Amino acid sequence: MAVDYTVIVVYLAGMLAMGWWGMRRAKSKSEFLVAGRRLGPTMYSGTMAAIVLGGASTIGGVGLGYQYGLSGAWMVFTIGLGLLALSVFFSARIARLKVYTVSEMLDLRYGGRAGVISGVVMWAYTLMLAVTSTIAYATIFDVLFDMNRSVAIILGGSIVVAYSTLGGMWSITLTDMVQFVVKTIGVLLLLLPIAVVKAGGFSEMKAQLPTEYFDPLGIGGETIFTYVLIYTFGMLIGQDIWQRVFTARSDRTAKWGGTVAGTYCLAYALAGAVIGTAAKVLYPKLGSPDDAFATIVKDELPVGVRGLVLAAALAAVMSTSSGALIACATVANNDIWSRLRGAVRRTEATDDVRKSHGAPDAPDAPGTPDALDSHDPHDEVKGNRAFILLMGIAVIATAIALNNVVEALTVAYNLLVGGLLVPILGGLLWRRGTVQGALASVTVGGVAVIVLMATHGILANEPVYYGLLLSLAAYVAVSLLTRPTDAAVLAAWRERLAGRDPELVSEPVPARQ
Fold first, then answer.
1. Could you tell me which residues come within 8 angstroms of residue 261 by beta carbon, excluding any fewer than 6 positions away?
2. Of the given ranges (25-29, 403-407, 436-440), which has the lowest mean pLDDT?
3. Fewer CB within 10 Å of terminal CB in the chain, N or C?
4. What residues pair up with 39 in beta bridges, in sequence order?
5. Four-point Cα dihedral 236, 242, 246, 250, nearest 10
6. Is residue 167 helix, strand or coil?
7. What is the pTM assigned to this prediction?
8. What confidence tens digit (pLDDT) does each residue in 432-477 have?
């Protein structure tokens, strides 16, 4: 294993080095959180594919293939479909908004007041998403070093927190590009053909396994529908995904770069299912389907190649973990802490004005670059860096406390889809939606999901089904019963979506030192 260990150590050291490089590059809030909105098609496609294909897509996707055969591809396949839909129909408009978070988009569309409560829901989603990826470190490091679970989580999580805290989105972008290449070589070009050959080829696989293993719908129609509801729609509205859209250099980059990444996800989905099917032939009686990936890598791959493929799994976990971590920190800082602090300051300013019989200045409109970047850029970078560190510690502690990756991931997506899908898509597609309707939708959908998970079980389908329906009903009913959104707010929203807002200045690029 010495060669394999060397491959992994070199890989991890490279991640930290890229964090140090990113620290020297990120000199403003825009550079730190969205890579200066300057990514071209190649880097955008690679990093977008890297963040959506994490440990659940790699280890979990192979496990589903082991359990269900080719139809096990559906979970990752629906992720790819969601990314394609986002890229083709929404990404260009999202990129033109020039915001940092989903909640800022809601404030722009509805005229304010939707940010904090939607931010809390999005924060819970991104936190749990980061936790699921961090838990997966235990599986990989156990195969590599026979390491204690908590120590493995701390080791892997600390590396991700370190390079994310140092360089922000620039570090994450560069590491994600490396991780994308490593995943492509390790999983698609090495593990996939080797697994099929070791299993005797497709003809032998068909001879050894039941016919339902080769039925495209063998996993079940209800399961496929649930995957679409959770993962396809989840891709449309997640802060971790939108924050990558914000990094695109242009509308065209966001649209076509995302389309390439979505297509790559479809190929990755099929590869994982085929690898899992091959593992079923080789190891028909594994204790858990999720052990299939680690077992076939450990037992069937030659020295060196094994280290590269394990690095690929580590890359998958790290890319999703770092993306979710910076999204979690961005939401916590921009949508919760800054807004609450701003509310306190406005209250204090109002008291001062009353005492002096004057009038306060009007606050900046939410979501505008002036409002977001009006302070010392160095202080803002420090503030966001501190939040990444703080959220990283919280993620590692939560990951140690939890055991079940699937349950944590289900909680994350149930909250996201049940609480935020309707007001976000409603804001983009329905002119009559109001801020009262959006707040009602978030509250009713989020509470319904939590209650139904408590009564029916976390893995039940009912929480997301009924939570989404109740969220939609609340949004439509309350919007129709309240006054329409102010015409000036809608006009400004349309101008912003079209990229024609005259007040929308380009964000400053820091001078070279």
1. 44, 45, 46, 48, 49, 52, 83, 87
2. 403-407
3. C
4. 248
5. -20
6. helix
7. 0.83
8. 999 999 999 999 999 999 999 999 988 888 898 999 999 999 999 9
